[in-house]
Design a protein that fits this description.
The chain has about 550 residues and is an alpha/beta fold. It is about 35% helix and about 20% strand. The strands form five sheets. Strands 1, 2, 6, 7, 8, 9 and 16 form a seven-stranded mixed β-sheet that branches. A five-stranded mixed β-sheet has the order 17-15-10-20-21. Strand 20 and strand 21 form a beta hairpin. Helix 9 crosses helix 10. Bound molecules: flavin-adenine dinucleotide. Flavin-adenine dinucleotide binds next to helix 1, strand 2, helix 4, strand 7 and helix 11. Flavin-adenine dinucleotide (FAD) binds next to helix 1, strand 2, helix 4, strand 7 and helix 11.
């Protein structure tokens, strides 16, 4: 079997991977691997918009954006990284606009900007409520124009690392089932989040933490996995996202009694307080018996005041989703919503150029942790993160490959990779489907919105039992062509790694900060815990250590909205 060779290999074709590819491909031989067609990456689902301090509505600037981001992060973000994000994002959006993305505009032709949670100005640029789709399509057409080699429906199953230097990867062509050795001078991980470990999640099927687990297994440092964002408003039952844009445009939340309960929790920002706060407020309403419906398991999102005209113009996708999935007319009916997992704040630790602790291995986008989101990401900041840090990682990879030879990769790596995959095939093993369902339930119930030491320790024990069961699990379908059962079994291995880090980080962090809320330690503790949780694999064992948070301009303050 022939070995595939490219100067730069990017794993992931969402916005981060494509932004990296566009920065790198004019200067170096660049290839992108994606386990789904690039346009099916989760980025396409992004609805509400992308933050950039253009100041088209009010006197905004990068410093105000940076402050909002740091405050939103509950002071856990690294402030020099936040500055890079907020200084660079306007240029990246101008690039995307110039490539033909159709953003909504004001009457004077400048980009329209809507309010989003935790922002002191309307600074979220948008394309209706399909912003991710619009930007991803635009970048993808540039990828085609630049003749970037895309391995679509190829799944990377392990990284090749020798002496702490990344030399490539092992990848499986899902169409034929064949495994290939891929060698390169630099690898960029852009594999997205790990939300599918949760029973309730807005994430799409491919979001199984692959890159975080691949990097962890290869010895790279992973950061802040206990910080998991829960989105306050997802459709009851399916947990399809209802973007914050719905509240940005004027939607409000009501409990079973029709009370606008957010006035009790965030009297100033109300429904547009950051996500961690709105989510906990909803969950508290549900726990205290003010939830709506027979099960008391949801609150109402009231969009009626917007009227059908505004809904169809600015939130057409949400209008349609409510119609298709709940048979409701958002212009006339209340929409039942409940919180669900939404975003992975932790990930592969990188510097501002995307470099990880393994040489020639970079990471960007949701799988990375720079960290600009800290303990709680502001809505609209993730798309910004993908474009800014994807671009920087692409540039950095170009600089790295200029000073590097193509490695000679030992075929043993392919053999080992194949052995691990083949071990999952066969009759009579434990059921991967059953392990996955249990994992999802444990994560939602015990490592969810509200956490406690007892629950977290229980979750850790159960996850470790599932890891042991996984070692003897197998999939009975031995076919080679599009073996989705096998693919999901490999993904389950990745999810078990990320879930284990999430539960361990959460059980050790004895404070409440951003999305991580401990009932037994309800206060933020800057003295003890203004630090990043770091994870790494040492001789196959998970080790935890801590690193300081980089504070530049903004000293931690009490966070109120
Ligand atoms: C429903 C929804 C709405 C959102 N709305 C917004 C919003 O309005 N504004 C905002 O800022 N953020 C939003 N977010 C968050 C944001 O969309 C994501 O964080 C961001 O798009 C992630 O981009 P990414 O490029 O890092 O990863 P993704 O877009 O998830 O792409 C991951 C890529 O990696 C590939 N991949 C994964 N594993 C492998 C493997 N093993 N081998 C090969 N390929 C692999 C996948 O095929 C895919 O191409 C939203 C998220 C969701 C779920």
């Amino acid at each position: 079997m022939e070995c595939i060779s490219h100067d730069i290999v990017i794993i992931g074709a969402g916005l981060a991977g494509q932004a990296a590819a566009l920065a790198a491909s004019p200067h170096a031989d660049t290839a992108v691997f994606s386990k789904v067609h690039p346009l099916r990456s989760h980025s396409t689902a992004a609805q509400g918009g992308i933050n950039a301090p253009f100041g088209n509505v009010g006197e905004d600037d990068w410093r105000k954006h940076a402050f909002d981001t740091v405050k939103g992060s509950d002071y856990l973000a690294d402030q020099d990284s936040v500055e890079v994000l907020c200084r660079n994002i306007t240029s990246r959006i101008i690039d995307v606009d110039a490539c033909g993305a159709i953003f909504d505009r004001q009457a004077d032709g400048r980009l329209a900007q809507r309010p989003f949670g935790g922002g002191s100005f309307p600074r979220t640029c948008y394309a209706g409520d399909s912003t991710g789709h619009e930007i991803l399509d635009t970048l993808h057409s540039q990828l085609i124009k630049n003749n970037v080699k895309v391995y679509s429906e190829w799944m990377v199953t392990s990284l090749v690392v020798e002496g702490n230097v990344c030399q490539g990867a092992v990848a499986m062509d899902l169409r034929s089932g064949e495994r290939h050795l891929v060698r390169s001078k630099a690898v960029i991980l852009a594999t997205g989040g790990a939300g599918k470990a949760y029973e309730r999640s807005t994430n799409s099927y491919p979001c199984t933490g692959d890159g975080i687990s691949l990097a962890y297994r290869a010895g790279a440092a992973i950061c802040d996995m206990e910080f998991v964002q829960f989105h306050p408003t997802t459709l009851l039952g399916t947990n399809i996202l209802v973007s914050e844009a719905a509240r940005g445009e004027g939607g409000i939340l009501l409990n079973a009694q029709g009370e606008r309960f957010m006035q009790r929790y965030a009297p100033k920002m109300m429904d547009l307080a950051p996500r961690d706060i709105v989510t906990r407020s909803i969950q508290t309403e549900l726990e205290q018996g003010r939830g709506a419906g027979e099960q008391g398991d949801h609150v109402w999102l009231d969009l009626r005041a917007l009227g059908q005209g505004v809904l169809l113009q600015k939130l057409p996708q949400i209008y349609k989703l409510a119609q298709d999935f709940l048979d409701l007319d958002a212009a006339e009916d209340l929409i039942p919503v409940q919180p669900a997992q939404h975003y992975t704040m932790g990930g592969v630790r990188t510097n501002n150029d995307g470099e990880t602790s393994v040489q020639r291995l970079l990471a960007c986008g949701e799988c990375a942790c720079v960290s600009v989101h800290g303990a709680n990401r502001l809505g609209g900041n993730s798309l910004a993160d993908t474009l800014v840090f994807g671009h920087l990682a692409g540039e950095r990879a170009v600089a790295l490959v200029r000073r590097g030879e193509m490695p000679i990769v030992d075929r043993r790596h392919l053999e080992e990779g194949e052995r691990d995959i083949d071990a999952l095939l066969g009759e009579g093993g434990d059921s991967t489907v059953d392990i996955r369902r249990r994992l999802e339930r444990i994560m939602w119930r015990k490592v969810g919105v509200f956490r406690s030491g007892q629950d977290l320790e229980g979750a850790l024990r159960e996850i470790q039992e599932l890891q042991a069961r996984y070692a003897s699990a197998s999939v009975p379908d031995g076919s080679r062509t599009f073996n989705t059962q096998l693919m999901q079994a490999i993904e389950l291995g990745f999810l078990l790694d990320t879930a284990n880090m999430t539960a361990l980080g959460a059980s050790l962090r004895r404070e409440s900060r951003g999305s991580h809320y401990r009932r037994d330690f309800p206060q933020r503790d800057d003295q003890g815990w203004l630090r990043h949780t770091m994870f790494r694999s040492v001789a196959g064992r998970l080790e935890v250590y801590y690193e300081p948070v980089r504070v530049t301009q903004y000293q931690p303050e009490r966070r109120s909205y």
